[in-house]
Amino acid sequence: MGSQWGYDKTYMRAKHEGYRSRAAYKLLEIQKKFEIIRRDDNVVDLGAAPGSWLQVIRTLTDARVVGIDLNPIAPLEGVETIEGDLNDKEVQEQVTALLGIVNVVVCDAAPKLSGHKSYDQARIIELNEQALAFACRVLKHGGNFAVKSFQGTDFPDFYADVKTHFHAVKTMNTQSSRKGSTELYVIAKNFYG
Predict the structure, then answer these.
(1) Domain layout of the chain by residue ranges
(2) What single DSSP character describes residue 19?
């Protein structure tokens, strides 16, 4: 569990409490405010490596949990993982076969950043759109979706797109995000189907 930003308090807390990364606290904050995951929800985590969101999800639901990532995810008890691309039709079919009904899709993924702001923003929005398309393919009517994004010129269009698919859409900045980050989360509830 490493951090390109060094060992700040949140990183050290995550390590001490057994989470694979600081991101665990972001999902805990989202859950506390929006209650996107219920005890009987089947949940898919996109871009799940190293698995800290999976660790949290496993404590929030008694139903099935699947993590998908291009990279391998170290095993977690009670969690199934798929090493593959979320855009791959076979991966989507595998999720449907494993879960049947998908109640919640979450995504904390971000591409590797180049440092070129406009280029990175476009790549992040592209990943957001892919996560939204995945959610729209697999979510049951009334399902929930949460995705990490970044503020920038392309964000309003993505946010408007999410609103066409869900009854209630909000944004949230988490206290666990690094200081100065433009990171925010889009929380979408009650999928129109």
Answers:
(1) 9-191
(2) -
Would you name the residues annotated as active-site residues? 148
CATH class, domain 9-191, is: alpha beta
Q: Considering the entire predicted model, what is its pTM? A: 0.90
pLDDT in tens, the chain (193 residues): 444 445 667 666 656 666 667 788 899 999 999 999 999 999 999 999 999 999 999 999 999 999 999 999 999 999 999 999 999 999 999 999 999 999 999 999 988 877 787 888 889 999 999 999 999 999 999 999 999 999 889 999 999 999 999 999 999 998 766 665 678 999 999 999 8
Strands (E), 6-138: 43-46, 65-69, 80-83, 102-107
| Residue 66: φ, ψ to 5° | -125, 135
Q: In what order do the strands lie in the sheet with 102-107?
A: 80-83, 65-69, 43-46, 102-107, 139-150, 183-191, 166-172
- Contacts of residues 125-132 at CB distance under 8 Å and 24 or more positions apart, as own/partner, are 125/149, 125/152, 125/154, 125/155, 125/157, 125/158, 127/47, 128/158, 128/186, 129/158, 129/161, 130/86, 130/87, 131/46, 131/47, 131/86, 131/105, 131/107, 132/158, 132/161, 132/162, 132/165
